[in-house]
Amino acid sequence: MNTEKKSYQENLKDLRDNLGNMLPKEALAVFDNDAESLQENHNSILKLQEGQKAPDFSLTNANDKTVRLSELLKKGKVVLTFYRGSWCPYCNLQLSHYQKSLEEIHDLGAELVAISPQTPDESLNVKEKNELNFEVLSDNGNIVARQYTTVFKNADAPVNIMTELGFDYDAHYSDDSRELPIPAVFIIEKDSTVSFAKSLGGDYRNRVETSEIINHLENGSK
């Protein structure tokens, strides 16, 4: 892997510095307390374990076209990542981080797919904002997410702070459930077997490093 690329954790330090300058201290504290609470309250995140078969699904992409997992698997492996939304700076950081290694992922015979409960319009927004060249799918109601990772209702405190800061959280979604998936990454083999499944817990500030994905794909292809 290109050693010049920063890790997610290195980029996270820069993001935290930026957020500290951009957001009121009280607002950042609310978000941080929310992340820490989620970490404490959710211990067993993954609904799908390594060695199990990945449930097939069909979801709408950013261009309102249907994408089916089984069709993608005919071409190669699939790296599946669940994220919260385009309003989440940590999600944008993660997806942008993964984009930088997309060529390596493709070279190792895999396709990258990101899923959130956002509307297709917001999927398009996140693609354009982060210049993503992989599929970003809309899982309205977290139907697919529930089969892979833990889904929870976003707390009032962070949503209220977002509203105060001028962000319309509910406008990103087709329903008013305010449910979100806990970020997780899965690598699915061509026969639909899950060979890698990982979440760093409820604290959404932490994400799976691209290096882990690349290393797994490299080892799996030997």
UniProtKB/TrEMBL annotation:
One of its GO terms (biological process) is cell redox homeostasis. It catalyses: a hydroperoxide + [thioredoxin]-dithiol = an alcohol + [thioredoxin]-disulfide + H2O. InterPro entries: AhpC/TSA, Peroxiredoxin_BCP/PrxQ, Thioredoxin-like_sf, Thioredoxin_domain. One of its GO terms (molecular function) is thioredoxin peroxidase activity. It comes from the Bacteria. Keywords: Antioxidant, Disulfide bond, Oxidoreductase, Peroxidase, Redox-active center. It is an enzyme of class 1 (oxidoreductase). Residues 48-222 form the Thioredoxin domain. One of its GO terms (cellular component) is cytoplasm. Its EC number is 1.11.1.24. It holds the Pfam family AhpC-TSA. The keyword Cell wall biogenesis/degradation does not apply. SUPFAM superfamilies: Thioredoxin-like. PANTHER family: SLL1159 PROTEIN (PTHR42801:SF7), THIOREDOXIN-DEPENDENT PEROXIDE REDUCTASE (PTHR42801). Belongs to the peroxiredoxin family. BCP/PrxQ subfamily. Thiol-specific peroxidase that catalyzes the reduction of hydrogen peroxide and organic hydroperoxides to water and alcohols, respectively. Plays a role in cell protection against oxidative stress by detoxifying peroxides and as sensor of hydrogen peroxide-mediated signaling events. This is thioredoxin-dependent peroxiredoxin. It comes from Aggregatimonas sangjinii.
